[in-house]
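>> Question from a student workshop board

For tomorrow's exercise we were told to take the sequence and the ligand below, predict the bound structure, and bring the output to class. My setup keeps failing. Could a helper post the expected result so I can at least see what it should look like? The ligand is pyridoxal-5'-phosphate.
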Amino acid sequence: MSDAALPATVADVPTPCLLVDIDKVKRNCKRMTDTARNMGVQLRPHVKTHKTIEGGDITTAGTRRKIVVATLNEAEFFAANGYDDILYGFPISKEKLPRCQKLANQLSEFHIMYDSVEAMQWVKDTPLNPDKKWSVIMKVDTGYGRAGVLWDSDDVVTVAKAAVDADNVKFLGIYTHCGSSYDCTGVDELKKFGTTNTDRLTTVRDKLKSAGIACETVGTGSTPSCSKPADNMAALTEFHPGNYIFYDYEHVRIGACTLDDVAVRVATRVISHKPSKNQLVTNSGFTSVSHDGIKQIGEEFCVVQGHPNLRLVEMSQEHGKIRPATGDLDFGEYPLGTMLFLYPYHSCATAYNHPLYYVHSGEKIVGVWRPTRGW
Ligand SMILES: Cc1ncc(COP(=O)(O)O)c(C=O)c1O
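>> Workshop helper replied:
Here is what the output should look like for this input. Compare the format with yours to find the bug.
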C-alpha cells in the first residue's frame, strides 16, 4: 500500500482490522532487550506472534540475527530478507528435512530442534555441504508436557548422545519452552515458576556435563517468564520470548504486563442494533478476533477499550455480538458506524487472522506490516 493510499488516522481504517501501536511495540521491545541485557542473557526473540520483517527488525534491534521461528515458512521468509542465525524451534520431522537442508547450506547459522533418537537418525541421514554440520538443540520438557525429552529421565543423556556421536552434527545445547508459565497469576508466582523451571533445566545441563556433554546454549522462553524473570534465570544463556512485542489481555490477567502495554487492538464497527437481545452487532467475528480464550474465560475474554461494562459475548464468522455485563444498553450511545476497539485475549491467534496490520503512532496511521503465512 502506497503512503497515499494509507488511511490518515485510526478513525479512517477499514474494519475489521488489526491496529499495531508502534510506540508501545518499541517500548515493550526495549524493556525485554534491557531485561535480557541486565541479566547477561542473549535475547533470541521468537517471531511467531507478528511474522513480519518490521517486527523482526525491532525485536533484533536491527541486527537481523538470532531469531526463533515456529515454521519453515517463517524461516524461509526471514532468510530471504537477509536474516541469519535462525533457530527452527519446533521438533524436526523427516518431511521437513529437505527444506532445512537448503537453509542450513544457505545460511551461516541455522539451528534445528529435536527430541528423540529417531529424529536424530533422520538428521544424520541427511547430508549437508562438506563445510557444514547440522547445528542441533535438544528440546527438554521441564513440566509443560508438550514436546521435549522429560527433564528428570535418563533419556536426556541417551538423546543428547545420539547427536554428539554423529559426525555431521554439532550438539549446541538444550532448550525448554516453559509454557506452564501461562498458568501463573502475579509476579510472585511467575518468579517462583521461573526459579523451578531454571533449576530443572540446569539439572539437565549438569547431568549432561557429568556424561561429558557440554551445552553451549541453555535456553528457555515464554513471555510471562521472561517479562518477570526469576533471579536464577541469569544462569541461562538465551531467552526466547515472542509474544511480548504485542502482549495481550491474557498477559494482563497473568500479571506479565498492564493493559497499557497491549500494543494490538482489533478495530470494529457497530453494524446493527438488536434491542430484543440488548445487543450491538459488530463486523468482527471469529475470523478477525479468533475464539482463543473464550473457552477459558467466556465473556471476559476480550476487553472493549473504554467500555468496561461491555462484553463480546458471541461471534460467528463475520459478526460479533456485544452486550453490557449489567443493565440495559443505551443504543443512542452507539449509533451505527460507531468504532469500538477490542484488546484480544491472545494476540498470536488474533494477528494470525489478518493479512496486514495497520501501524499507528497516536492517532496517525504510519504504515502497514504484511506478515508471512503458512507452514
Ligand atoms: C518453542 C517455543 N519457544 C518460545 C515461544 C515463545 O513464547 P511466548 O509466546 O510466550 O512468547 C513459544 C510459543 O509458543 C514456543 O512454542
